[in-house]
Amino acid sequence: MARYKLDETDHQILDLLIDDTRTPFTEIAKQLEISAGTVHVRVRKMEELGIIKGSTLTVDYERLGYTFIAYVGIFLERNHQAQFVLERLEEIPFVTVAHITSGQYNIFCKIRARDTKHAKEVIYMIDDIQGVARSETMISMEESINDKRRLLHKAFRELQ
User: Fold this and answer.
1) What is the Cα gyration radius of the chain?
2) What strands lie across the sheet with 68-76, from one edge to the other?
3) Per-residue pLDDT tens for 75-110?
4) Which residue ranges does the record assign to the HTH asnC-type domain (predicted)?
5) 6-55 and 59-137, same CATH topology
């Protein structure tokens, strides 16, 4: 994949959007002393190039009552069942992340639940998926780092 060349204005726009995706283009323009139209054109260009893919909503899961986090390593009966199992995992809204992995597990996923009882129900849903041989669960005691902004600032700066 070709690396795109961004100029300093693009980097400044990205830095502001990484820190707060809801920053209005008019505010970005004011901070950077450029027109809002320029910000709009630059952002649209980065979207067309695939550098920016929408924006995300950050929620406080604790306020929503989903304080229990666990990671589930899934062993498949057969490797070729991975896509089928991933499609079934997508049907479980409490599975928030899933990866096909190398190493010990065929699939590794993150779940969010209200409490241990609810987590047990979610894990049973996962274990009941056709093709899942068994799973292993690790309970998260505390989420210490969850900040992709640091990586985004660094990665976008490397697009010089």
Assistant:
1) 20
2) 95-100, 107-113, 68-76, 132-139
3) 999 989 999 999 999 999 999 999 999 999 999 999
4) 6-67
5) no
β pairing state of 107-113 and 68-76:
antiparallel
- DSSP-derived letter for residue 5 is P
> 37 is written with which tokens?
């139209």
Instruction: Supply the angle between the helices 36-48 and 25-32 in degrees, to the nearest 10.
Output: 110
Question: In 3-state terms, the chain is what percent helix, strand and coil (to 5)?
Answer: 45, 20, 40
Q: What is the CATH number of domain 6-55?
A: 1.10.10.10
Q: Could you tell me the residue ranges of all domains in the chain?
A: 6-55, 59-137
Four-residue CA torsion sign, 98, 100, 103, 105: positive
59-137 CATH fold: Alpha-Beta Plaits (3.30.70)
Q: Which residues of the chain have pLDDT under 70?
A: 1-4, 160
d(CA 28, CA 114): 38
Please tell me the distance from the alpha carbon of residue 130 to that of residue 81, in angstroms, as a whole number.
9
Q: Using CA atoms in the order 19, 21, 26, 32, what is the torsion angle rounded to 10 degrees?
A: 30
* Of the candidates 15, 49, 133, 42, the residue with the CA atom closest to the CA atom of residue 85: 133
